[in-house]
Design goal:
Helix content is 34%, strand content 35%. The protein is built from 9 helices and 18 strands. A hairpin with a 2-residue loop joins strand 12 and strand 13. The chain starts with a strand and ends with a helix. The mean pLDDT is 86.
Length: 364
């Protein structure tokens, strides 16, 4: 016989012939011949050295443990004293009952939706995060959710969490801000057979993400193609001179003729216009020569017009001077003053008659 003691928050398993025959709770006990006791702290994990199916057959053992059965399509959340402790995968799990209180929350993860019973603050815990898929849609984006290849819903900006399971999840995002598309280096033949190069730009915005991403493949390439075709159609009907005169009207034509098609893509065209018109080298030289000739002709016309005006002014002045002696004298003095401004000094030589002659010029 042997005297043994089981302390508080401990449990004893009496083993005989390598088999557990009874369970001892807190207290003092006698062991019989060939018996020995294994003592376990209830706060520790359950030992794996014994077969749980065999132990459950021992009288009183079932009341000492928490037995959690987790199916293949589920997980269990373990809370110790109302605080999250860990996550249990599929299988059978055993915990000692003791001073600490454990609670178990079974969750079905066969579907992707996470119920509200799982608090969102737990999603970042390492043991739970392993079973969760996370996806973030930025504030300037929207997205389409596909589950097993089937469109489910439109996602607004935010962070989304789904169970990680056998279902396949795909998310297609789109930028909902104003976007710019450049159509550069378009070589087009005008109606008068002039080969020119056009750089065109436009601004657009996605207004229906389902049409843009689900109903059409690569909506941006389709937008580029329709703009390119309309640009070629319009410019191909114009001569080079008409194009240079009406290049501001190209944007109006493009917007009017592509509005319906672009709306079908789920887009809205905001602005568009020609950035550059690049002419071939020989055509550019001819255009420069024409421009120089035009400017010279305009300069000549302006000079002739100014000369005519100046002559007419002189004629009017002459008529006034002819009718008014005083005005003639003032004009004469004005010219003498201008001449005097250019003379630094005057040397006078001769007899006294020169002074009299000068006096006759300036004094009436």
């Amino acid at each position: 016989m042997k005297r043994v003691q089981v302390n508080v928050n401990e449990i004893g398993l009496v083993v005989k012939n390598n088999q557990v025959i009874r369970v001892l709770e807190t207290g003092r006990y006698w062991l019989g011949f060939g018996e020995k006791m294994e003592t376990y702290n209830r706060a520790n994990s359950f030992p794996s050295s014994h077969n749980i199916d065999v132990l459950l057959q021992v009288e009183g053992f079932r009341e000492q443990v928490d037995l959690v059965e987790v199916e293949d399509s589920a997980i269990a959340l373990v809370f110790l004293n109302n605080n999250f402790e860990k996550t249990l995968a599929a299988g059978r799990h055993v915990f000692w009952k003791g001073l600490q209180v454990r609670k178990f929350q079974l969750e079905d993860i066969s579907e992707i939706e996470i119920p509200v019973s799982v608090h969102r603050q737990l999603f970042e815990r390492q043991t739970l995060a392993y079973y969760i898929r996370q996806y973030k849609v930025e504030p300037h984006e929207k997205a389409l959710l596909f589950v097993d290849g089937v469109f489910v819903e439109t996602l607004n900006p935010g962070t989304y969490y789904w169970w990680k399971n056998a279902k396949t999840i795909a998310v297609s995002k789109a930028d909902m801000r104003v976007l710019t598309l450049d159509i550069v280096g378009q070589e087009i033949l005008s109606r008068d057979k002039a080969q020119i190069r056009i750089n065109f730009t436009l601004q657009y915005q996605i207004v229906d993400i389902v049409k843009a991403l689900l109903d059409h493949k690569e909506y941006e390439k389709q937008l580029y193609a329709v703009m390119q075709l309309n640009l070629r159609t319009y410019i191909g009907q114009m001569t080079l001179d008409e194009l240079m005169e009406k290049k501001t009207e190209i944007s109006t034509f493009i917007m009017q003729n592509t509005d319906t098609y672009i709306a079908g893509l789920g887009l809205r065209l905001l602005t568009c216009g020609v950035k550059d018109i690049i002419l071939p080298g020989d055509v550019r030289d001819i255009m420069n020569q024409v421009l120089i000739a035009e400017k010279r002709a305009q300069a000549t016309i302006i000079m002739r017009r100014e000369e005519t005006a100046s002559t007419r002014s002189l004629l009017n002045t002459a008529k006034l001077m002819e009718e008014n002696d005083m005005l003639f004298k003032l004009k004469e003095m004005e010219y003498v003053e201008k001449i005097a401004e250019k003379i630094n000094s005057i040397s006078v030589s001769g007899n006294g008659q020169i002074i009299d002659q000068l006096k006759q010029l300036f004094v009436k």
